[in-house]
Amino acid sequence: MDILGDKKFNKKSWDFSTHAKGPSGKIEFTPDQLISEPSGNLFAQSQNTGMGWDPKKLWGTQFMILSTLGGMRGNDGEPVALGHHTGHFELGMLIETVANQIKEDNGIPYSAYCSDPCDGRSQGTSGMMDSLPYRNDAAIVMRRLSRSIPTTKGVMGIATCDKGLPAMMMALAGTP
Question: What are the sequence ranges of the domains in the chain?
Fold first, then answer.
């Protein structure tokens, strides 16, 4: 494998576990839920449990946190992967604070991202052709992400910069 131009690769990178113990617990569905709820709502609860959410807390009020987060930080705060710009690189801390508050209030936070570009980074390149159209495209994607969890009772947008913030505002304005 030569994805980085080096003819050597670390054989340990192919040494990983393919089996692990999953989350424990049991989802308690009522007969009325099994009869009345759309199958997607019931399937979603198994997804939530599979991601580690306590099955006893599945029925709290659900909220969507949309953001333009980009890049990734490790638990130590050091960058794991860089984003397009510093504005969206810092949003993870805000998202975590909001999600923890929703959880503390017995709600269920969901988080989805549609990162944004930096036209400063793409100046003088063909990347500028994507800078302005991003806003409209991202607004469409964010609305779709929000509607894809139809059981949420609210949506919060967290965005920065001159492309991501207008895209978020357009998305929120068009979200029922």
Answer: 27-58, 60-176
